[in-house]
User: What shape does this take?
Amino acid sequence: MSALIRPFAALRPTSRFAAEVAAPPYDVLTSDEARARAAGKPASFLHISKPEIDLPEGTDPHSAEVYAKAAENLVRMRDQGVLTRDAKPSYYAWRMTMGAHAQTGIALTASVAAYDVNRVRKHEFTRPDKEDDRVRQIEVLNAQTGPVLLAYPASAEIDALLAAVTGAPPAVDIVADTGVRHELWNIADAASIEVITNAFERLPALYIADGHHRSAAASRVAAARRTRDGEAGHEYFLAVAFPHHRMQILPYHRVVKDLNGLTPEAFLAAVGQRFVVERSAVAVQPARPHEYGLYLAGQWHRLTIKPELVPGDPVARLDVSLLADRLLAPILGITDPRRDPRIDFVGGIRGLPELERRVNSGEMRCAIALHPTRMEDLMAVADSGQVMPPKSTWFEPKLADGLLSHVLD
Assistant: This one.
């Protein structure tokens, strides 16, 4: 059985190019946004992760010429000395700081075999078309260029080693154009590598926070390339693992276009059968699980679900599930939030003012603010072998593409 994790010889930017190379994850920008972001920046990793920006506007981002352009740009950036590969396998401490929040983890490669037997645990369904895209990208580059965001159950042993490593000046210290500070330290000495590898081996599991399509694609590539060598590069996938209690999940709110034929008074009366409803003079950002903020007709209300309606199942007890099962479906008639055009989602750092704006503009009829999903709840869902409802988590800060890539030799 292969080790759960192992070090890798990263392909990464030379120090003078690091700030320009760093790019948002490939899937958070449209092609037009990426084109604008990379304008005048030939070293931006967007030329590899969103290579359609170097082809005529309107080019299908999944066409063969786009993947070929990614490979061409990777070769160019290596030839120009923008990217270089480390001489020996290492782990890398990675700290991200966004405002007052900081989290420090370890960049590593995680075992595909462990993923396949659910020791690297999932909590989302994947879409075949998105997997196909990542498979083609990995194959044409012979590299994984977007790290999967992992969580590991907090370990005092790993924390202590990271504290020692990050006491020295970082090898990379940049502020990306997202405003997030990224610091990296190289962990190359054999003793530290052994401590980290063994400490992770003792963990019961790792948990995918973000990157289900990237990890699924890595598994497919490994299956297609597999030989008897379980230690080949394709048997591991690029990831950065953070202790679960240091990760930050922001709330994912809901906005709804109509009240399903109800007046505001009738709607509130129906809600009151399942929730305690209290008017609020200020905007309501829920302070605890099972509490919601409702913005309707210029007025905020605090909703608290009645305790007897909270089941024990790890998925059914999630705030997003309770909202769907006790309000969206029975009162508003929204039974499939993935596809119903009457509902939309407001995630991340846009917050309550965005909810008020969309309702006050008349675009939406009401908004519902949620408490962020807790990492412990995500882990419980993954442990049970179930999946989270759509739009349950919004992780911030996000990893940068380009600072570390994994070449599959």
In short: The longest helix spans residues 64-79. The longest strand covers residues 101-111.
